[in-house]
Fold this sequence. Notes:
Elements lengths: L1 H31 L9 H21 L8 H27 L1
Helix pairs in contact: 1-2, 1-3, 2-3
Amino acid sequence: MFLFGNFFIAIANVLDILLGAYMWIVIISALISWVRPDPYNPIVRFLYAATEPVLRPIRRKIGFLGPIDFSPMILILAIIFLRTFVVRSLMEMGSQMR
């Protein structure tokens, strides 16, 4: 049974790293959007390609609330929730299976 416990702990660790990295990608993308970057820059293209498919549905749901786009903040809160709830739940489940 310890094998499944270690498997869940490994999944939780990888998921935590991926969610943390994606949160930083969202933060950097939001910060870059303030300075009107060159849209042909490969880094800017990667950031927008990585974040826009997730941010677009959030923007459609909440709309624009004045000049400020709150969709990155909502996405960051969702990532924090996933890291707190899902990752910790997987860790706890893996620890109990050991």
